[in-house]
Amino acid sequence: MKTTLFYFLFLFTFSISAQNFEETQQWIMNNAKATNFTTASQQVFYSKSKKLIYFVKVLQLPSGGHTFTTQVFDPKMASSIVINKNKDSDGGHNLTLWFSESTPVYSIDLPMTGPYQGTRLNNKIIESYPLEKGIRRHGIEIYLSSDREHINRVKKAYIHLFQTLGYTVRDGDNMF
Q1: What's residue 105's pLDDT?
Q2: What is the pTM of this model?
Q3: DSSP character at residue 166
Q4: Is the CB of residue 87 less than 8 Å from the CB of residue 152?
């Protein structure tokens, strides 16, 4: 009886302390960074009306400006996420988010200047731009150029992010 009560309290405490989508989104924005010839940070948005995930990579250029690259896709197509086995040219690792089948991945042409005046975007800004033609892909790269310990934490954050939306993305490195 005591054991059952202990497990119930443990699960209840865990469910209260679990991060929601916005908290996980903020953690990724603050921690999923790569530093090489540019500094890259990741931002993730979810459009409830369009049912799409928006991955935005913010590159801080050596000149001090910023540029954005976007990858937009249906989150139900994401199936697993893995750490790339080969190190990149900077000696770090990156992630690959795999899709269950060939999936259209769209882009957005975000201008270099705009109402955000910096690197922090939001859903209203992102959703206001039309999607460019989709290219069918089997996965997308998440560039982090980081050590394995940090990259594991980022990978778990992405898995949790999809869970908060009701989608299952498996840890491809620990499937067996």
Answers
A1: 93
A2: 0.79
A3: T
A4: no
Looking at the chain, list the stretches that DSSP marks H as alpha helix, in order from N- to C-terminal side.
Answer: 2-17, 21-31, 123-127, 148-164
Q: Are 132 and 106 in contact (CB under 8 A)?
A: yes
Contacts of 169 (CB under 8 A, 6+ apart): 78, 79, 80, 81, 97, 158, 159, 162, 163
| Cα dist from 33 to 14, 56, 93, whole Å | 28, 12, 12
Residue type, 168: T
Token pair of 62 as six digits: 């050596």
Contacts 24+ apart (CB under 8 A), 64-68: 65/112, 66/112, 66/118, 66/119, 67/112, 68/110, 68/121
DSSP-assigned states of every residue in 60-98: E-TTS-EEEEEEEE-GGGEEEEEE-SS--TTS-EEEEEE
Q: For the chain, how many helices (H) and strands (E)?
A: 4, 8
d(CA 156, CA 171): 8
Beta-strand relationship, 78-83 and 170-171: parallel
Q: Which residues of the chain have pLDDT under 50?
A: 5-6, 8-16, 115-117
Q: How far apart are CA 64 and CA 176, in angstroms?
A: 45
Q: What is the pLDDT of residues 22-32, one digit of tens each?
A: 999 999 988 88
Residue 33 β-bridge partners: 41
